[in-house]
Design goal:
The protein is elongated and about 75 Å long. The protein is of the alpha/beta class and 462 residues long. The chain has helices at 2-37, 40-51, 59-74, 137-147, 165-170, 174-185, 227-239, 291-310, 332-344, 370-383, 420-423, 436-455; strands at residues 79-91, 97-103, 106-109, 112-114, 126-133, 151-154, 190-194, 222-225, 244-248, 252-266, 271-281, 317-324, 347-353, 361-367, 390-393, 409-415. It folds into 2 domains: 28-90 and 255-455, Zn peptidases (Aminopeptidase); 95-250, Glucose Oxidase, domain 1, CATH 3.50.30.30. The protein is built from 12 helices and 16 strands. The strands form 2 sheets. It has an 8-stranded mixed beta sheet with strand order 1-10-12-11-13-16-14-15, sandwiched between helices. An 8-stranded mixed beta sheet has the order 3-2-9-5-6-7-8-4.
């Protein structure tokens, strides 16, 4: 009996070692292909430099749809299609302009940009005294008497002591997203918000602002000011609280327009009804060309399917790439995809998103059950030779969030975060700031995770 037990243990051990060896070989093959025959960088070059910023509802967004569909068609996938989705159409208009006036005739220009979704200023712009605050709660303390007729200046920096810059962003972004709605309730005539950026520079960073259910008459124009501009304005206010600020925005919210998610898939060989998604968002803001946010995530996701085919791997489950439209100012693409999946009774078991830039991959975050997370941790050693070592519990991504169901695994690629918010939503989010090798390493890491999740059937939905 003891002899039989020992033989069984030896047999199982040999099987485990064999599986690990096969996985190591497959990951090595994936990485070698990504680094020697990758296409992600070339795809991104075209998206960034031939098309440019891809704000939802824009001509550039539609050009990106046409281009990425054609590229997916060329990969020989089992199916490629466009999924209709209605998206908001907000236009920036002519360039914004702002200055600080210390006294009549004495002005200093400062860099600003309209926040996405903002209303425009009156044709002549807005000029008023400024009141500086750090928290939304400061408005309650000041009250309407001190705010009415003034421009509210939100000046809370991202916390530089937080090594995870996404945590620093989360701790500061409420002033951008809700500042205009809150200040409008107290009679402010405009809002200026410090850019979400840990670096001191002259680039204003846009991003959505949300008026909620505020009546049209109370909606006020909202703009971001560069971090250098915010420091200058704050210092000037300390010297003279009676200075005035002038700004002019020419933006406009138009009617919703039709657009598309771009989707391609490899049909599963044994469990085609079980679907694994990998994706990023095809839209971007309009100031730069959206190379990091999120052109990088889109081309990496496309590359996952190409690398799997190139490596000769035949998936058991259906693996689907989804390039979502309208993450930046509405999340319509992600919601539409989840809604259609539910209506069709599709069985999604795993989803991976890349929406944190094309920097060096450090690991993944996971929204999963404890048992699935334990399995994921067992794979960590396979990624350590590639310095992808951070496997943490957390969210997957905004676009795949609406898919979440009990038993499903959501994952997010987590690149190095230190440079991301220097470029996020700003004019300098451009192709030359993406390193080819870093981008390819991210695509390889994503492909490797998809391979393992498919091979070992991670995730399940009843």
């Amino acid at each position: 009996m003891i002899k039989k037990l020992c033989c069984l243990i030896l047999f199982v051990s040999i099987g485990i070692i064999h599986a690990q060896t096969q996985d190591e070989k497959q990951l090595k093959k994936i990485y070698d292909l990504a680094l020697t025959k990758g296409k992600a960088y070339d795809w991104l070059n075209y998206l960034s430099n031939q098309i440019g910023g891809r704000l939802s509802g824009s001509v550039q967004a539609e050009q990106a749809i046409t281009y990425t569909k054609a590229e997916l068609d060329s990969l020989g996938l089992d199916r490629v299609w466009l999924q209709p989705v209605m998206v908001p159409k907000w236009v920036r208009g002519t360039p914004e302009f702002a200055y600080i006036e210390s006294k009549p005739g004495y002005t200093s220009n400062v860099p600003i940009c309209a926040l996405g979704g903002s209303v425009s200023t009156p044709p002549g712009g807005v000029k008023a005294n400024v009141i500086e605050v750090r928290e939304l709660s400061d408005l309650d303390k000041l009250g309407k008497e001190k705010i009415q007729g003034k421009i509210v200046f939100f000046n809370r920096p991202m916390d530089p002591t937080l090594l995870n810059t996404f945590q620093a962003y989360s701790g500061a972004v409420d002033q951008r997203s809700a500042g205009a709605a809150q200040a409008g309730k107290y009679g402010a005539v405009g809002v200026i918000v410090r850019s979400m950026n840990l670096k001191l520079d002259d680039y204003p960073h846009t991003g959505s602002t949300n008026y909620g259910d505020l009546p049209e008459a109370q909606k006020i124009p909202a703009a971001a000011i560069s971090t250098n501009g915010a420091e200058f304005l704050s210092t000037t206010l300390k010297l003279d609280p009676n200075i005035q600020f002038y700004f002019k925005l020419n933006c406009k919210q138009l009617e919703d327009v039709p657009s598309f998610n771009v989707i391609g898939e490899i049909k599963g060989s044994s469990k085609p009804e079980e679907i694994m998604v990998v994706g990023g968002h095809l839209d971007s803001w309009d100031l730069g060309d959206g190379a990091h946010d999120d052109g990088a995530g889109c081309v990496q996701s496309m590359e996952v399917l190409r690398l799997l085919k190139l490596s000769g791997y035949i998936p058991k489950r259906t693996i689907r790439v989804v390039l979502f439209m309208n993450e930046e100012n509405g999340l319509r693409g992600g919601r539409q995809y989840a809604s259609d999946a539910q209506a069709k009774g599709e069985k999604h078991v795993f989803a991976l998103e890349s929406d944190a830039g094309g920097f060096t991959p450090r690991g993944f975050s996971f929204d999963s059950s404890e048992s699935d997370f334990a399995t994921l941790l067992e794979w960590k050693s396979l990624f350590e030779p590639y310095m992808v070592q951070e496997f943490t519990k957390g969210g997957g991504g905004a676009d795949i969030g609406p898919l979440k169901k009990e038993g499903m695994v959501l994952a997010g690629l987590r690149p190095d975060t230190q440079r991301y918010f220097v470029h996020h939503h700003a004019e300098n989010d451009t192709f030359e700031h993406v390193n080819r090798r870093e981008l390819e390493l991210g695509a390889a890491a994503m492909t490797s995770l998809i391979y393992l999740a498919d091979t070992y059937q991670l995730g399940s939905v009843d």
